[in-house]
């Protein structure tokens, strides 16, 4: 409708725009997509749960409040669920920093559990690989739990048992900066701290293998991935990553690591975070304005509804004054996915778009657009069985392997 309002003068641009927005989804493909068991391995949506006045049960608009996942949109986009992340920003590697991060992470985990408890007709907690299909068969959304950034565990790896009891089954070691467990792929120093996992990180990995938690290497350095592949007794997951052969970014993985990951039974889940898909034209005014705004929004859970509305209005004004005219597209996302599929095949690729954590591209702005992925995979020649593996079979196999490792 917005394209129509722009007038006939833009009609000549429509073929290019349509290509950027991805394939047309036929009724048959949409029905197939709705039939598949679909999981996203990295949902940052728990951050939305604590926003004032925001409800997961109500439909929201990505162009208004910039959120990307809620129950109505999950139903429209055929997303059965996924791994809901307890994300904690990296703070100081100190006793006080660990304490604050621990408390924040526990509260965020409780927010996820409360979401399920408040609406048992629509959400169900999953803790084993076998739980997913029965939950989806009942028409409910699947809620696995994960941790992005192990920083809140402090220096006590036994604290992982507490989060396991809460429901956590996947844990990533680091985020944007080095911490006590591992080197980050994007630390501001540009230099490694440990050259992979720290001694404490190796202890954490042992504990993960012992209790049945999947190791997640996304955000960690290539050397951390090397250590995980060498030391983990169960397969490794990249919950939201891309391909370095398509775009050479530290957050992406080269073909040699992809092959090593697959050889150990691991899986790469493809990210839709635009900055990791391709280079974009610099927009310094927009970046400065957003930086200032995000500084005000860091304490989002403590904001009043009125203050949040004010900050959302400022974000919309930034979009008006400094529009992002060179955003990566659905085609850019698919280039990474199709490359990974070419390198390691459909047994080792999945989907972790980083919704509500920076993911989303032109043509796939929120989870309503997910059937386009199914359409693109079918168009590329992948079978229905392949697409089912990509959407959930592979990540569930890795989870089942972690469970089996625990049993052994």
From TrEMBL:
<feature type="signal peptide">
    <location>
        <begin position="1"/>
        <end position="20"/>
    </location>
</feature>
<dbReference type="InterPro" id="IPR008257">
    <property type="entry name" value="Pept_M19"/>
</dbReference>
<protein>
    <submittedName>
        <fullName>Peptidase M19</fullName>
    </submittedName>
</protein>
<dbReference type="GO" id="GO:0070573">
    <property type="term" value="F:metallodipeptidase activity"/>
</dbReference>
<dbReference type="Pfam" id="PF01244">
    <property type="entry name" value="Peptidase_M19"/>
</dbReference>
<keyword id="KW-0732">Signal</keyword>
<dbReference type="InterPro" id="IPR032466">
    <property type="entry name" value="Metal_Hydrolase"/>
</dbReference>
<dbReference type="GO" id="GO:0006508">
    <property type="term" value="P:proteolysis"/>
</dbReference>
């Amino acid at each position: 409708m917005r394209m129509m309002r722009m007038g006939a003068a833009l009609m000549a641009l429509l073929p290019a725009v349509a290509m950027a927005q991805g394939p047309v989804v036929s009724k048959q493909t949409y029905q197939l997509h709705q039939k598949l068991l679909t999981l996203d391995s990295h949902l940052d949506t728990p951050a939305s749960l604590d926003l004032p006045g925001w409800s997961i049960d109500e439909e929201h608009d990505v162009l208004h409040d910039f959120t990307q996942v809620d129950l109505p949109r999950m139903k429209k986009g055929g997303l059965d669920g996924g791994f809901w992340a307890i994300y904690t920003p990296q703070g100081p590697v100190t006793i006080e920093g660990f304490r604050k991060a621990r408390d924040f992470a526990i509260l965020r985990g409780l927010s996820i559990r409360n979401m399920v408890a408040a609406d048992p007709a629509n959400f169900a907690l999953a803790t084993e690989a076998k739980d997913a299909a029965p939950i989806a068969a009942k028409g409910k959304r699947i809620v696995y739990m994960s941790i992005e950034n192990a920083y809140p565990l402090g220096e006590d790896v036994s604290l992982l048992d507490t989060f396991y009891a809460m429901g956590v089954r996947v844990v990533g070691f680091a985020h944007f900066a080095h911490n006590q467990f591992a080197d980050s792929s994007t630390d501001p120093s540009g230099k490694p701290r440990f050259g992979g996992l720290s001694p404490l990180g190796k202890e954490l990995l042992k504990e993960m293998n012992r209790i049945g938690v999947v190791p997640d290497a996304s955000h960690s350095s290539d050397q951390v991935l090397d250590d995980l592949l060498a030391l983990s007794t169960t397969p490794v997951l990249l919950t939201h990553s891309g391909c370095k052969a398509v775009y050479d970014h530290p957050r992406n993985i080269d073909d040699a690591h992809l092959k090593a990951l697959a050889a150990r039974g691991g899986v790469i889940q493809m990210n839709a975070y635009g900055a990791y898909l391709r280079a974009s034209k610099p927009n310094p005014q927009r970046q400065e304005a957003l930086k200032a705004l995000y500084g005000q929004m860091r304490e989002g859970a403590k904001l009043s509804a009125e203050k949040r509305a004010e900050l959302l209005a400022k974000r919309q004004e930034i979009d008006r004054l400094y529009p992002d005219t060179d955003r990566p597209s659905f085609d850019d996302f698919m280039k990474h996915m199709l490359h990974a599929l070419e390198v390691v095949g459909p047994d080792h690729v999945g989907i972790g778009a980083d919704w509500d954590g920076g993911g989303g591209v032109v043509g796939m702005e929120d989870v309503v657009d997910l059937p386009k992925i199914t359409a693109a995979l079918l168009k590329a020649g992948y079978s229905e069985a392949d697409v089912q593996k990509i959407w959930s079979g592979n990540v569930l196999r890795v989870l089942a392997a972690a469970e089996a490792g625990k049993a052994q």
